Amino acid sequence: MSTLSMAEVPELEVPQHLLNRHTFLFGAATSAYQIEGRPEGREPCIWDAFCTQPGAIRDGSNGKDACQALAHWQEDFALIKQLGLDAYRFSISWPRVIDANGQLKADGLACYQQMLDDLQQAGIASDVTLYHWDLPLAMEQQGGWLNRDTAYRFADYAEKVSQALAGKVTRWCTLNEPWCSAHLGYETGVHAPGKKGRFQGQRAAHHLLLAHGLAAQAIRAADPGSQVGIVLNVTPCYAISEQRADMQASDNADMLHNHWYLSPLLEGKYPDGELAEQILTHVPMQKGDMTTIAQPLDFLGLNYYHPTRVAAAHQADREYQPMPVAADCHINAMGWECDAKGLKDILLQLHQRYVLPPVMITENGYADELKAEQGRVRDKRRSWYLQQHLQALAEAISSGVDVRGYFAWSLLDNFEWTEGFSKRFGLIYVDYATQQRIIKDSGLAYQQMLARRR
Ligand code: FCB
What we know:
The structure is a single chain. This protein is α/β, with parallel strands linked by helices. It has helices spanning 32-35, 46-51, 69-83, 94-97, 106-121, 137-140, 149-164, 178-186, 200-222, 244-267, 274-280, 289-293, 340-353, 380-398, 441-451, and strands spanning 25-29, 87-91, 125-131, 171-176, 227-233, 237-239, 299-303, 308-310, 330-331, 337-338, 359-363, 403-409, 428-431, 436-439. The chain has a single domain (6-453), classed as Glycosidases (TIM Barrel), CATH 3.20.20.80. It starts with 24 loop residues before the first strand and ends with a helix. Beta-D-fucopyranose is lined by residues 31, 34, 176-177, 180, 233, 303, 363, 409, 416-417, 425.
């Protein structure tokens, strides 16, 4: 643990109305495959297999050890308390709690039970994601998210787990970022399971949305005292010029990335228009699906990292690629443009277009490659990023968007998917060789901000 004195780190200056602990909560987030380790305690998942493919992960690493968070959870929870977080968002590993025959595994569930009891005793809210990308490999061998049956298997898992953990979880998030699971996993193939194919993204997306709707119903029945929502990654799309072709490309990108998910969930229908209609001829929809998908949501989780700049010239057919970034911006270690205004813009756009349930910013954060020096991580840029985004968030709230909370990604440095371990998002530094944790300067600034609240 860090012994740095409070006076040595820069303050996060955050608008007052975010600092009322009765109306706005602050937390930090992680996910199972990225931190847990201990793969011998579970069935294999699609990321175990994907990581063995040559070239799939930039540094050739995998999530076998990661932060060894299952071995170190008590230490990590002491840090959560030390930071003064109101809530902790983490995910349950589906292949750890359900065995090859689809039965609940008591030993796999036990650690999550202990964690949830510990949070409850400490008065810390729990935000539990059921699917943060770690599909059981056996299910992928049956077609994964291209197979409709996976949606029913997911609902069964959600039902069993929410029954077993009823009364312990504050908010359930069914899925994390289905656009990534569907599009990156089945269309471009850059994420697990690494499948490529035109329209496979939307086919997988339909089954993911269906899985969400079925699971939401199951959780409500099993754990009526909890709240149920889903987490989407949203990005404002900006055309790089006012030329018609660029504007059109940008509208298409917005439709495919944001509204392809939001419109079914909030309005029970896919987006309209020629492009949407063409795509929908490839989506295996059945009667009643849209009603199932559009379950009432207690909250909508939104993850925001960067805006998307779109040019027609970069669009291969209906496909789009994010443009290089704006000229004068700061770019993080992921190559992502840092633009806090994008957060405000997308929130206002969505607020104008939909009747939104209460929103939680379930992820937002900054990547660097900084290592600890003499027990300290001077990550000024992360504090800067957090401050900018909290400012923008406060402005969106002042303009009428009902946002109830903010989770920094991430509590800990962790396995950053295809980037492996080189990119660090944590408020807490992890030395992977020794598993030592050090609260970074940004984590201390977050801690101070939380301590100053009413
Ligand atoms: C999000 C993921 C999360 C993490 C951040 C950087 O898309 O949900 O697991 O990798 O990006």
